[in-house]
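Support case: zinc ion complex. Customer-provided input:
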Amino acid sequence: MALHLTNGQTEEMIRHARREYPDEACGLLAGKACPEQGRRDGRVEKVYPMTNAEHSPVTYRLDPEEQYHAFMEIEEEGRELLAIYHSHSHSPAYPSATDLELAFYPDSLYIIISLADRARPTIRAFRIVEGVIEEERVEITLFEEA
Ligand SMILES: [Zn+2]
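Agent response - structure generated as follows:
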């Protein structure tokens, strides 16, 4: 599965990460899964920046109430949860031991935005199933959707 984002959506996540720095920022990406060459392919339609209930520079937890409302809206609008994103303030864009423990959604992608080099944020996406990490492609379309 490859995740497709617009540059606007990408910038929104990076802005969110910078706003929360040095705490980790977290949120959800919802959209449509579209089959492509027999594999699942996801096109992001909506970014849900959320409160990190831990307010921590080393870990994150989606605010439960915000998460509940977002899940309801995603369902009502006929979308799917495509990815959960969070930022790393000082470490690379790779899942930490804590991230592995907290990866409760095997069908979702985990996006990590690293601000270790604050001038040059990096974004990577992973699928985490039973502690096994697999990197996925992220495609960024360099224009806004209408
Ligand atoms: Zn992490």
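The chain has three helices and seven strands.

Case will auto-close in a few days if no follow-up is received.
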